[in-house]
Amino acid sequence: MGIREIQVAAHNFTVHELDDVYDSVTGRALTGSWVWNSALVLSHWMSTHLNFQGKAVVELGAGAGLPGLTAALLGASRVLLTDIQPLLPGLLKNVEANGFKERVEVRELVWGSETESGPFDVVLMSDVFYDPENMVRLGNTLERICREGTEVWAATELRPSTGDRLNELMNQGFQMVEVQLTTQLDVQNGMEDSNQFAIFQIICHVSPTPVI
What we know:
By secondary structure, the chain is an alpha/beta fold. It has helices at 37-49, 66-73, 88-97, 132-145, 162-170, and strands at residues 3-8, 11-16, 56-59, 78-83, 104-108, 122-126, 151-157, 175-182, 197-203. Helix content is 25%, strand content 25%.
């Protein structure tokens, strides 16, 4: 781990990846300590497809926070980066390193908790569809922070279990619209494999038809 320079929309982000944040139960490094390829895919896609001017944005399971920082770069008026408590110091470091302290907040958010942080205009997520126990809690959180017109965008690497995780959200009443599928290998930005990635728009119960 260490410091990475990642270019998005002709801007160089400084991203601190951590090597000293561990799960207290398993002893393994927390997966949110570094930038996942899905976060790179989402950030690049956002820079050419979404309008963030004047919008309030939240990133769920932000990890290192690259998509949320990209939203700030692209004109969001407020960005909230959320994750579990051990990852917050790393998020704060990345906010400060990129000069976004005035518009980007960092806050703990445990999915399914009663914490109210919204509503928001845009919700961002990358590589969050892997733990079946978290899908109901994620759905509960989305219900609380979305309002009519909220856009929810999620990028994920397509794994054998991804379809099951998406079905669990759809069983809660959410709709999934695949808007981008890519296998592009981006060597410049450190993507280490050419697996398939997809970007989905998630339609909440209160939301109108997809914007794409």
